[in-house]
Structure formats: structure tokens, C-alpha cells
Amino acid sequence: MARPSTAPTTFVDRGGAAALAPVASGSFADRHFKYLLVLPAILLILLIGLFPLVYTLLVSFQNVTMLAEDTSFHGLRNYARLIHDARFWGALGHTFLITALALPLETIFGLLMAQLFLERLPGRQVFVALLIIPTVISPIVAGSMWRLLFDNRFGPVNQILGWLWGEPVTILWTLRPEWVYPAILICEVWQWTPFMFLIFLAALSNVDRSLIEAAQIDGAGYWTIFARIALPIIKPVLFIALLIRGLDLVRLFDIVWVLTRGGPGTRTETISIYAYVMGFQQFQISYTAAMAFVFIVILTAIVFVLLRRMELAR
What's the alpha-carbon Rg for the chain, to the nearest Å? Predict the structure, then answer.
């Protein structure tokens, strides 16, 4: 037998009719129990996420180096130095250049591969399993492997190009300024195109087949169906995939470091490599902190604008 409610009630007059409304009762813990449950997790996330950012900001106003640990307030000295640092802006430009070149290539190849493997091809599962192998390889290992492949004396890339060209080819992929970017892009696209391929394959597989069949009955062609039906449907997934890969590309370090060390000179030096050199080789800790904070602000602004555009496009 159900027990009657013990919560006190009061009469509320709504348009001349009396209604019974319960009055909130109980302690603070009872009324906010759901918030108290998630509070420890929120505090832990804030501690892990915000503490490094706040500490980096504090260090950027100090003068901590390998020779001195001056924790007094030095104002905006490091930021003023950063504004006039041509190497920093060059590294920032190299980072966004690699991102602007690699991201469209990975997206296009990933979409084409996903569209190809939508069909029930013989041995489809085997080919998909083989294609994703580059993604699970460490970037350091991938960069080392491609450095050997690009080697002028023992690497097979120049030998294969020589067979196709009909005479010996001696391309210094990791040393000549005109070839270092193609070498980086080949390695980067080879490793991360399968990641985009898997995301797009999963998205395209969930497109309603009835829409495609209806378009085929109306006489729409293969690419018309893809551009007018499939692509708009997977647009949110496409945007998220671009955002994930773009954020991963702007912190590119491993492959470039193994292939070129940022060279020749500083021609391929990314922002991550420059921060590593200044922070862990020259031990300019406060200056590196200022660099990291400025980069975080720039990246946050870009992501905010992209997310806003995504919301407006809905």
C-alpha cells in the first residue's frame, strides 16, 4: 500500500481555481544531490585543465632561465620580445602552411576511399584492416621509416623514380628546400588519411539508402548523389573530423623533427619544434611559456570562430 506524501502543500489561486502545489522541503544536500554527485569530477577536470594554463601564464610574467630563476614580476617583457621575434612568426606560418596543405589532402583522399569501400567489395574487411595500419604506428616510427625511404643512397623512392624516369634520380628530400615540404606532406598524408577514411566510412554507411535509391530512380548520377545527398547529410561529421585533424596538425612535431629537424635552417620549423628548442635546449622557460600562451589564445580564437560558423550554418 502506497504511503501518503508528507510534503506540505499550499493553495495557489490560478484564475479563480484553487490548486494544490507542493512546497520545496528538505536539506540543501537533498535538493542539490545531482550537482554534488558531479562536483568532484568537475573540480578534477578544472584542476587538470586550468592549472597548467594558469601556471604557464604566471611563469610568462617571470624570468626563469637555465642560469636564473627569477620569479619576480617582469611585466610584459617576454610578450614584447615575442612580438619582434621573426622566428616565432615564421614557425607559426610554417605550422599553418602544413595544416592548410595536409588537411584538404587527407579529407579528399579519405572521402574518396570511403566512397570506394561503401560497395561490398571482395575482401573488404581485409583491405580496411590493412589501410588503417599507418594510423596505429607511432609518428616517430613513421617519420623514421620515411626518412629511410627518402634516403638518397639506399632509399627505394629515388630508385623507383629513376626506373620510371629512365635515368638515376638524386632528390635530397630532407635537405633541399624545394623538397622538404613534399616529403613532410607525403609522410603526414600517408599516416593520417586512414583516420579520416574510417570516420567518413562510418558516416556514409549510415546515410539512408532510400534517399539514394530515390535519387537513382530520378536519374541522378553517382557524383550528383554524393554531392547533393550524402555530403550534406554527413556535414556535421565532416566538420568534426576537420576540427580534430586540424587541431592535431597545428601541434605537429614528431614527423617534422625526425625528417628535417625543422631544417634546412628553420624552413620547416613548426611552433612545437620552436617551443621545444627554446624550452628544452636553450631553457628559456618564461619566454617559452609566453609563446605557448599566445599560441593557445590564437588557437582558441580560431576554434571559437569555427564553432560559431558551424552553429550559424545549422
Answer: 28
Task: Tell me the H-state helices in the chain.
Answer: 28-31, 33-60, 77-83, 86-116, 124-131, 133-136, 139-149, 156-165, 177-205, 209-217, 222-225, 231-233, 235-249, 254-259, 271-276, 285-313
Q: Which of 85, 67, 89, 63 is nearest to 76 (CA)?
A: 63
| 87-283: CATH superfamily | MetI-like (1.10.3720.10)
Bridge partners (DSSP) of residue 12 are 19
CA distance 19 to 307: 46
**Which position has the grid cell 621509416?**
145
Q: Work out the burial of residue 145: count CB atoms within 10 Å of its CB; fewer than 13 is exposed, 13-18 middle, 19 or more buried.
A: middle
The x, y and z cell numbers of residue 106, run together, are: 587527407
Helix axes 86-116, 235-249, angle to 10 degrees: 140
Angstrom distance (rounded) from CA 229 to CA 222: 11
Q: What is the dihedral of CA 207, 208, 213, 216, to 10 degrees?
A: -40
- 64 forms beta bridges with 69
Domain boundaries, given as residue ranges, for the chain: 87-283
pLDDT in single tens digits along all 314 residues of the chain: 444 444 444 444 444 444 444 444 557 667 777 788 888 888 888 888 888 889 999 999 999 888 878 888 888 999 999 999 999 999 999 999 999 999 999 999 999 999 888 877 788 888 888 889 999 999 999 999 999 999 988 889 999 999 988 888 889 999 999 999 999 999 999 999 999 999 999 999 888 888 888 888 888 888 888 888 888 899 989 999 999 999 999 999 999 999 999 989 999 999 999 999 999 999 999 999 999 999 999 999 999 988 888 776 66
Nearest Cα to 288, choosing from 78, 87, 92?
A: 78
